[in-house]
Design brief:
The strands form 2 sheets. This protein has a 4-stranded parallel beta sheet with strand order 4-3-5-6, with helices on both faces. Helix 2 packs antiparallel against helix 3 and helix 10 packs antiparallel against helix 11. The chain is built from 13 helices and 6 strands. The chain has 340 residues and is of the alpha/beta class. The protein folds into 2 domains: 110 residues; 179 residues, 3-Layer(aba) Sandwich (Rossmann fold), CATH 3.40.50.10140.
Length: 340
C-alpha cells in the first residue's frame, strides 16, 4: 500500500463496515469469533450440495443401466423374430403369404431399428456421465459392436450396387450404365472396381443383397449363373424386394411366357442332378464345400419361379429406352429411393 492513508483503512481493531470472505460476512452483525465457523458452514454446505448432486447422478445412471438391460433383452428377442421372418420369406412359395411376410418383416425391422436408436441414445448418455475410473470398457465395446452390426443391417448407406453377369453384351451395357450414372453424381458400387484384390466374394455378394438400391441387369447368362442368382436370392431374402431392386432386362432373357420361365427351372434341376450324381462318386469326407454348393442350387431352384414372375410383372423399360434417355427414369427412381 502507498504511504498515504487509505480512506477505508481500519485501525484500532474497529471492524465496523468491514467485510470478510468476499462480502459473505459483515463485521457489523458478526463478531470475529464467528467468522471461521460461518465460513466453515458455507464450505460444508457446498460439500453437501455436491454430494446431493452426485447421488442424483448415480441414481440416474442406475436407471439408465436398468433401461439399457431391458432394451438389450428386447433387442435380442426382436432380432430373432426378424431372422425367423426372413427365413420364412425365403422358403415360402405361396405368393399371397409371401406378400404378407414381406409387409410383416418391414414392420418388425422398423421396431428393431427403434430399439437400436434407443440403445444408442442410452449408451451415449451413460458415456457422458461416466468418470474415467468407472467406465465398464469391455461391456461398452461389446454393445458398440452389436449396435454397429445392427446399423449395418438397418441403416443403409447411400450407395447403389450393380448386379450383373460378367462378359459379353451384359458387361458392355453395364460399363455404359456405370459411366452415365457416375456422371450424374450417383455413387456406384461395382465388384470389379470395389471388391479389391483378395476381397471376399461371398461377403461382397451378401452386401449387395442388403443394399438399399440394387440395379440388376438381367441376362440369360445371369439367370444361369450361381453367383448372380445368389445375389438375386439375397436381395429377396433381405425383404423390400420391389422397393430395393431396379431391374433392366436384356433382350436375350425369356421370362415373359410360362413355358419360357420353366426352361430356367429345368436348367437348375439339371445342375442339381449333375452335381448330385458327381458327389455320389466321391467319399463324403472329401466333399467340403460341395454340400453348400448343391444347397445353393436347390435354393435357386425353389425361388427362381417366384423371382422371374416378379421381374416379368415390372415395367422395366427396354435397355434401348434407358440408353437413349441417359438412364433418366432409372436415375430419378434411384434418387427418390435414396432420399427416403
Amino acid at each position: 500500500m502507498p504511504d498515504s492513508e487509505d480512506p477505508k483503512q481500519v485501525s484500532n481493531n474497529d471492524l465496523r463496515n468491514s467485510q470478510f470472505g468476499g462480502g459473505l460476512i459483515n463485521a457489523d452483525t458478526v463478531n470475529a469469533g464467528q467468522i471461521g465457523g460461518d465460513i466453515y458452514n458455507i464450505h460444508v454446505g457446498q460439500q453437501m450440495s455436491a454430494s446431493g448432486n452426485s447421488a442424483q447422478s448415480q441414481n440416474q445412471r442406475q436407471r439408465s443401466q436398468s433401461e439399457r438391460n431391458s432394451l438389450e433383452k428386447a433387442y435380442t428377442l426382436q432380432s430373432q423374430k426378424v431372422a425367423n421372418l426372413r427365413t420364412a420369406l425365403v422358403i415360402e412359395t405361396d405368393v399371397s403369404r409371401k406378400f404378407q411376410y414381406e409387409h410383416q418383416l418391414q414392420s418388425e425391422e422398423r421396431t428393431l431399428k427403434e430399439l437400436v436408436d434407443k440403445l444408442d441414445a442410452i449408451e451415449q448418455q451413460l458415456q457422458a456421465t461416466d468418470s474415467p475410473h468407472s467406465k465398464q470398457v469391455d461391456n461398452q465395446e461389446q454393445l458398440q459392436k452389436e449396435l454397429e452390426q445392427a446399423r449395418g443391417k438397418l441403416k443403409y448407406k447411400k450407395e447403389v450396387f450393380i448386379s450383373y453377369a460378367w462378359g459379353g453384351d451384359s458387361e458392355t451395357y453395364v460399363n455404359h450404365l456405370d459411366e452415365v450414372l457416375q456422371s450424374k453424381g450417383i455413387a456406384i458400387i461395382r465388384d470389379k472396381r470395389d471388391l479389391g484384390y483378395k476381397g471376399l466374394i461371398k461377403a461382397f455378394m451378401e452386401k449387395i443383397g442388403r443394399g438399399k438400391c440394387v440395379i440388376a441387369v438381367i441376362s440369360d447368362k445371369y439367370l444361369k449363373s450361381p453367383n448372380c442368382m445368389f445375389e438375386l436370392v439375397q436381395i429377396a431374402k433381405n425383404g423390400d424386394f420391389y422397393d430395393r431392386i431396379f431391374p433392366i432386362v436384356l433382350p436375350d432373357v425369356q421370362i415373359y411366357k410360362p413355358i419360357e420361365r420353366i426352361k430356367y427351372i429345368k436348367y437348375w434341376e439339371k445342375q442339381i442332378k449333375e452335381l448330385d450324381e458327381a458327389m455320389k462318386g466321391v467319399s463324403a469326407a472329401n466333399l467340403q464345400g460341395f454340400r453348400e454348393e448343391i444347397d445353393l442350387y436347390t435354393q435357386i431352384r425353389h425361388t427362381i419361379a417366384e423371382l422371374t414372375n416378379l421381374l416379368k410383372d415390372m415395367n422395366t423399360l427396354t435397355p434401348d429406352i434407358h440408353s437413349e434417355s441417359d438412364f433418366d427414369e432409372l436415375s430419378k427412381a434411384i434418387t427418390r429411393r435414396l432420399d427416403e
